[in-house]
Amino acid sequence: MSSTTSPSSEKIQPQLRPVRPTDAEALCAIFNMPGFRWGTFRMPFERVEQVERRIAKSGQETTWIVAELDGKVVGHGNLVVQGSPRRSHIGQINIGVDDALVGKGIGSAILGALLDVADNWRALK
Hints:
Number of helices: 4
Oligomer: single chain
Shape: globular
CATH topology: Aminopeptidase
CATH superfamily: Gcn5-related N-acetyltransferase (GNAT)
Largest sheet: 4 strands, antiparallel
Strand order of the largest sheet: 1-2-3-4
Helix content: 25-40%
CATH class: Alpha Beta
Number of domains: 1
Low-confidence stretches: 1-6
């Protein structure tokens, strides 16, 4: 019996970097994927301009990263720290991955990076 790795169990190590305004089009395409929206209250057919505004409005309370494979954006994640002093210990994490690459470890890589920021940089415990 030979040991082979099925494509679905193959893990990928993406390049992680901060979001850029130029990522809006690629992120919008991911946001509009059926699997990305499934089980959420997200509206379909989001426009690039909406994503551009969201990127522009993210401030110091937000750590927003994208995952790239071969220069193509394939996922994103952000950590948003609550603004009021009484809630400054609270953070919210959002993650999304290209439908075709779900289960390949990209979301786990994004989550690991955001948890590192939460634990070691934002003092969220």
